[in-house]
Amino acid sequence: MLVHIIEKELRDIVGSAKFAVNFSIGTALILLSFYTGAQNHRIAQEQHEAALAANVRQYEGVTDWMRVQSFRIFLPPQPVAALVNGVSNDIGRTVEVRGRGELRSQDSRYGDDPIFAMFRFLDLDFIVTVILTLFAVLFGYDAVNGEKERGTLRLTFANAVPRTVFITGKCAGTFLGLAVPLIIPFLLGALLLPVFGVPMSGPDWTALALVTGAGLLTMGAYLLLSVWVSARTERSSTSFLVLLSVWIMTVIVLPRLSAAGADLFVSVPSMDEVNSQKSRFMSQLWNEDRTKMNGFTPANKGDVQEVMKEFNRYMQTLADDREKRFNEFAGRLNEERANRQMEHRRLTQYLSCLSPAALFTLAASELAGTSLRLEEEYLAQAREYQKEYARFMKEKTGTNTGGFAMVFRMVTDDNAEKPKPINIAEVPAFRFVPPAAEAGLPPFTIFSGTIALYALLSFAGAYRAFRTYDVR
Amino acid sequence: MSVHTMLEAVNLSKRYEDGALAVDDVSFSVRPGEIFAMLGGNGAGKTTTINIFLNFLEPTAGEARINGIAAHRAPLEAKRHVAFVSENVMLYPTFTAVQNLDYFARLGGKTQYTADDYRRVLLRVGLQEEAHHKKLKGFSKGMRQKCGIAIAILKDAPAILLDEPTSGLDPKSGFEFMQLLGSLRDEGKAVLMSTHDIFRAKETADTIGIMRQGRLVMQRSRAGLAGEDLERLYMEHMAGVHE
Fold it and tell me: Does A164 touch chain B (CB under 8 A)?
């Protein structure tokens, strides 16, 4: 009997004009999101390659490694990130690495062109959280009370149909009726990726499949919630209004309010505030060092080269000491801010967990490697690279570049052989290793599990409500 | 309970939560091969009685039994023995007549029917063949009622409940419907029908009951009504003359 009810639901949904309209819109948007993702990835890849080339070109003709004060590294575009943008467009892609000092990312996609920040891109996160959840509400709001209004519920229960079987069939049939056809555009969209040259690896495909699964699960959660509300109300107009309010709250309002809500409990000092504290401290250190510089007395005043070498060594000592003290101070500030930020993020996540749509956003970005951890990961790898870069530059220049140094070059013989240009390709290459999909799997499982829990609770609610539903 | 009783109301009462007494100590029985017509005005308790038989409502007191099974105690078992046709048969509008029949036949536990079986039953209830594979959304009320009775026939239950089945039908359709009901009675079905249609009730029913304010104020067999003016009796009972 369960199979008959599921079959009926499938046939009823697929045969309806509502489905034809929604399926067409859904298919077009899903394919468009894959196409947009593939195109964005291609553009980002081209920009990345151009930036790498430009970075090398700027050192053409340079003959002294001392003139390489910094070296830019870039965050390469990731295939899945093109489909689940997360924060990938918000964080800076470029980091200017010096031999010492703090690292900051800059030149974000949205920073480059804020119009994209205003309207964002059409990605799978948007498709799931806005389009699919809305479909779920549109197909579920009259699942039970609509049958009552149409008069079919009475005829159905004139037969020996257990209510549990009916509500289970209703939920399963409606979900399958929506989810199975939607798998087609997802598969077609996935086929577009290699066609448009997106280099998807095995783990990328797995991540995409899991994200799609989580998307359908999210849609299922909203569908079951809709069936529940439908089984709690007599009229479909009432359930529609209730569900529309729930949808607006959970899809639009709650995710936006959660960070602001967390702000009420945990305040995170702004970067401006932290940076101005750092600047003040740095100024103080410089003032101290300027006083010390005034007291510099060379041991051998006769040899200018020796004086410069001694001066640079002296400056290096000051710089090292300054950097040590500054790093300690900045480290404290950063740690304090990071701790508060972590607490703020955790609270924001807890608050946003009230929304299955927000949970999907968190889950998908974790698996796509575009979660809040992306910037931390990028900067962590950049810091590791900075050490390698500093070692390399010390080998080349004999000093730790990045601080303040003076270079005096004395040309004594016009006929002397001109120095050869440096080979910038010798600089160690930065290779960003995207966070392994396995690293995103535990949070993805937790967030998806919570969505599943919402779905189960909604099913239990629908089941309980329908046990006593007046089918007349 | 007699072994020949298929539908039976035993001291059946239903009081709603707002205190309204919809059915008040009603007792009657319908044997196989018998049509019992319940007459009565709006709110007399006819539909409530049928709803109790279908376990859509629980009785406050008494029992509604189908084939000896109390509907509110073993509803699934009881419903296996009964088919139902409502006042306004509403089926799935995106399904064809045959698809609707197939779905409800399967719900009724009949999975062995073939396309030919559906064709024959639809022809039997008078639905023209060209409509069999059309979607229900274009069907008139009469055509939907025919589908409803076809579903009841396909269930092949020994008892049939009809809630004002001819209401809103044109005279020809109403006549055909009643003829069909007569043939079902001849097949041995026990039929309980609520209706406002005194004329058709007199023509078809074996037993007529009149309900007023939840009570069964009159119950007579066709023989017992011989020579009586049913319309006058009905009006008198509605006016409370016999109380």
Answer: no
